[in-house]
Amino acid sequence: MIWSGQVVISRAEEEYFETPFTRLSYLSPSKVLEIGFGLGISAALNQKRLMPIQQDIFEIERKGYMDLKMFAVPHANARPFFGCWQKAHIEEQYDFIFYDPFEYIPHGRAPYSGRSETAASLKQILKPSGYYAIHILVMETCLMWKDSTLSMWSYSRSS
């Protein structure tokens, strides 16, 4: 997948995405929010490993959203949403939030601005007993929070 001339993700990443989802499978969340559909790799692994009752997925790129709608056809528990999750009126509270968006940085805006605001927004829609994970593909790292406790693990393509 290419965004603004940059490769955001490719099918070559699929194999090692299995590691974080295998490690997260013990969570058994009922309601999952996934931010960033991309090629659908993590959405498929959410279905396979976490098996949620409800999986809400946001995608901001039109082609990705069309693919997301196709993904939702055989997965009745997957609900596709088009647009920026921060601008949506989300009334749900989730057991698990998987945040894996490419850093879409508008022209003239400094990278990494607003991360504390993003974390605060995620916490508002997370159940008190819930977890959220941020996948950092470039570093092959997954960060996961519950309350104020941070867990982090690294993995590699050969894992």
Supply the key terms.
Rossmann fold, two-stranded antiparallel sheet, seven-stranded mixed β-sheet, alpha/beta, 159 residues
Description:
It is a single chain. It is built from four helices and nine strands. With 159 residues, it is an alpha/beta fold. α1 packs parallel to α2. The longest helix is centred in the N-terminal third of the chain and has 11 residues, at 14-24. The protein has one domain (14-102, 114-154): Vaccinia Virus protein VP39 (Rossmann fold).
Please provide a brief summary of the model.
With 159 residues, the chain is of the alpha/beta class. 26% of the residues lie in helices and 31% in strands. The chain has one domain (14-102, 114-154): Vaccinia Virus protein VP39 (Rossmann fold), CATH 3.40.50.150.
Strand order of the largest sheet: 5-4-3-6-7-8-9
The topology string of helices and strands comes to EEHEHEHEEHEEE
The share of residues in helices is 25-40%
For this structure, the CATH topology is Rossmann fold
The total of beta strands comes to 9
Strand percentage, roughly?
25-35%
- Look at the helices and sheets and give the structural class: alpha/beta
- Name the CATH architecture: 3-Layer(aba) Sandwich
What is the total number of structural domains?
1
**The CATH homology group name:** Vaccinia Virus protein VP39
The total count of helices amounts to 4
> How far apart are the first and last residues' alpha carbons, in Å?
23 Å
Low-confidence stretches: 105-113, 137-142, 148-159
Largest sheet: 7 strands, mixed
Radius of gyration: 15 Å
Q: What is the 3D shape? A: globular
Mean pLDDT: 75
CATH class: Alpha Beta
